[in-house]
Design goal:
single chain; 511 residues; alpha/beta; Rossmann fold; Alpha-Beta Plaits; four-stranded parallel beta sheet; 16 helices; 30% helix; elongated
C-alpha cells in the first residue's frame, strides 16, 4: 500500500474489528498487519455494542489514530468518543467502516480495500480544536450512559481561517452557500453561529480560497481515501468506481456491483464538479453521486443534477463517454481508468488542473469551449468603450482572477480564466454595470485556461501637478465630467490636474 508521503513514517493506527463480522476478522487482521504499514489490528467481541475496548487497545498499541470495523452502522457514538478521549485521541478523528457483506473471495477483497482506505483517511485527519466541536444528545440514552455522563456526542463543524478569508473585499460566497443562515456578515467580518449550523460541508467546498475548514472532511482526507480505494496494489477487484453518498442518505437500491466503492460526505451538495472529475483522473473507471434522501434537510438534488449534467457534457465534448459520471449504481463501472498526475485534485482551484490533464489525455482540441449554467469556471468580458478603469472589480475578486495594475502614466486590468470561479462578485461593485461594462459567462474555455493571465483593458492616467501622485484613470475622469455636466465645468481642470490632497491647496485663494 502507498504510504502517506515520501520519507514519512505512517501514523500508528489501531484497527478494532468486531468478531461478529460476516467477513473473517482474523484473516482481515492478518492482512492489515502485513500489507498496511503501521496498523495494529485487534479482534474485539461484540464491538458494536460494547465499545469499552477502545481505550484499552489504543493505549496498549500506542496508536494515534483509530479505525472501527463494525457489523452494523448503529453504534454508541457518544461512548466511543468518550473512550477515545480517555485514550488521548481526538474524538472527531475516529473512522468507522461497516462491513455487512458475506463471506467469499469477493467480499474479503472488497473489505481489504475499504479498510485500507479508512486507515488512509484516518491518517489524513488534521486534528480539531474546541471551535470544531458541537455537542448533541446521543440518539440512544440508557441508564448507564446517564450515570457515566456519556449522553453527549460531538459532531464536527467548520471553522474560519481569517488569514485566508477575503470577505473584507466583498466576498460572500460562503454566506450564499449556507442553507441554515449560520454564516452572516457583520461589522466587517464573517460571523459563524455554531448553534444554527447543521454541518453539511456546503460552505467548505464553496469557498474558493479554502478558508473554511471542517476537520472531519478535508480535501486531503478525501484524496487519501479515494487514492487508496483506487490503488491497484490493494485488493484484487478491477475495474473500480467511486460513488459519493450523503451520510443522511438511504442505502442504494438493489445490489451494488463489487467494483463500486463509497465516499461518505455530510451532504451530496458539497461534491463539486472537481470532486466528480478528480477520481477519473486518479484511475476510477466511473464516478457517481447518489441523490439526497427525503430525510435530508438541505435538498441539494437540483445543484447536484446541474453539476453532473455539466460533467457529462464536458466529457462528451472532450471525446470521452458521458456515462463516466452517473447518478446510479445499476451498472458496473467501466471506463478508461486514467492515472494522471494532478496536484491536489480535491483542493481549491483544482478544476483547471483537472480539465487540462483530462484534455491532454484525450487529445481534445485546444479551442474546446463549453457554456453551461453549472460551469464552475467563468469568462469575463470587458466593454472597453464603457469601462472607466476604476479597478473596483479587481478589489472585489476573491480569487485574484482580476488584477488592476498601475505603472508610469498608465494602468491595466488583467484577467486569468484559470482563477475565475464565476462567482459574480465583480458585477455588483462595478459603477458602470447598468451600461454593460462587464459581462460574466459561465463557460469553460480550454484556450483561456492554457493562456493564463491576459490584459483586458488599458488606459492612461492623470498625475498630480503638485506632488506627482496618481490622480485617476483618464476614462474615469471623462465619465465623471459627462455625469456632472457643463454646470460643473469650472471644476474639471482642478479634478484632472491635482490629487485630492493637493486639490484643496490649489483651489484656495492666494494671499
Amino acid at each position: 500500500m502507498r504510504g502517506e508521503g515520501e520519507g514519512k513514517r505512517p501514523l500508528k493506527t489501531a484497527v478494532l474489528l468486531c468478531q461478529a463480522l460476516a467477513v473473517d476478522p482474523q484473516a482481515l487482521g492478518r492482512w492489515l498487519a502485513e500489507a498496511v504499514e503501521g496498523t495494529c489490528p485487534f479482534q474485539v467481541p461484540a464491538l458494536c455494542d460494547h465499545p469499552e475496548a477502545v481505550s484499552r487497545f489504543v493505549q496498549e498499541s500506542g496508536a494515534s489514530r483509530l479505525v472501527l470495523v463494525l457489523c452494523h452502522p448503529d453504534y454508541p457514538r457518544a461512548r466511543v468518543q468518550g473512550h477515545a478521549r480517555k485514550a488521548g485521541l481526538d474524538p472527531l478523528g475516529v473512522e468507522t467502516v461497516v462491513l455487512k457483506e458475506g463471506a467469499g473471495p469477493g467480499a474479503i477483497e472488497r473489505a481489504k480495500i475499504l479498510l485500507a482506505a479508512a486507515v488512509a483517511r484516518a491518517r489524513a485527519f488534521p486534528g480539531s480544536g474546541p471551535q470544531n466541536l458541537k455537542p448533541a444528545l446521543a440518539q440512544e440514552i440508557d441508564r448507564g450512559a446517564l450515570l457515566r455522563l456519556s449522553f453527549l456526542e460531538y459532531h464536527a463543524v467548520p471553522s474560519l481561517r481569517e488569514d485566508l478569508c477575503v470577505a473584507e473585499s466583498g466576498c460572500r460566497i460562503c454566506i450564499g452557500a449556507c442553507p441554515r443562515g449560520a454564516l452572516q456578515w457583520s461589522r466587517g467580518r464573517i460571523l459563524y453561529d455554531k448553534g444554527a449550523c447543521e454541518p453539511c460541508g456546503l460552505c467548505v467546498t464553496a469557498c474558493p480560497r479554502g478558508a473554511i475548514v471542517n476537520p472531519a472532511i478535508t480535501p486531503a482526507q478525501v484524496e487519501a481515501q479515494v487514492r487508496t480505494l483506487l490503488d491497484p496494489s490493494v485488493g484484487a477487484i478491477t475495474p473500480r468506481g467511486i460513488y459519493f453518498t450523503c451520510q443522511r442518505g438511504r442505502e442504494p437500491a438493489g445490489k451494488i456491483h463489487e467494483g463500486w466503492f463509497p465516499v461518505s460526505v455530510p451532504c451530496i451538495g458539497m461534491v463539486t464538479t472537481a470532486w466528480l472529475l478528480a477520481p477519473l483522473a486518479m484511475g476510477a473507471a466511473a464516478v457517481a453521486a447518489l441523490p439526497c434522501s427525503e430525510a435530508c434537510p438541505h435538498r441539494q438534488d437540483q445543484v447536484t443534477e446541474g453539476r453532473i449534467s455539466y460533467c457529462r457534457s464536458l466529457l462528451s465534448l472532450l471525446g470521452a463517454s458521458a456515462t463516466l459520471v452517473r447518478t446510479s449504481l445499476d451498472q458496473p463501472p467501466e471506463g478508461p481508468a486514467w492515472r494522471l498526475n494532478v496536484l491536489d485534485p480535491f483542493g481549491p482551484g483544482a478544476m483547471p488542473r483537472l480539465l487540462l490533464a483530462l484534455a491532454e489525455a484525450l487529445g481534445a482540441p485546444e479551442d474546446t469551449s463549453l457554456e453551461h449554467p453549472s460551469s464552475p469556471l467563468g469568462v469575463l468580458d470587458v466593454n472597453e468603450g464603457v469601462c472607466t478603469g476604476c479597478g473596483r472589480c479587481a478589489l472585489a475578486c476573491p480569487t485574484g482572477a482580476l488584477a488592476w495594475e498601475e505603472g508610469g502614466d498608465g494602468f491595466s486590468l488583467s484577467f486569468d480564466g484559470s482563477l475565475c470561479v464565476a462567482c459574480g462578485a465583480c458585477l455588483p461593485v462595478c459603477p458602470e454595470k447598468e451600461r454593460g461594462a462587464l459581462r460574466l459567462t459561465p463557460r469553460t474555455d480550454l484556450a483561456l485556461l492554457s493562456r493564463g493571465r491576459r490584459t483586458v483593458f488599458t488606459g492612461r492616467g492623470a498625475r498630480c501637478e503638485g506632488c506627482g501622485a496618481p490622480v485617476a484613470p483618464l476614462p474615469m475622469l471623462e465619465r465623471l465630467e459627462e455625469v456632472l455636466g457643463p454646470d460643473y465645468s469650472h471644476l474639471f481642470p482642478l479634478l484632472r490636474r491635482y490629487c485630492p490632497q493637493c486639490r484643496a491647496t490649489a483651489a484656495s485663494p492666494k494671499p
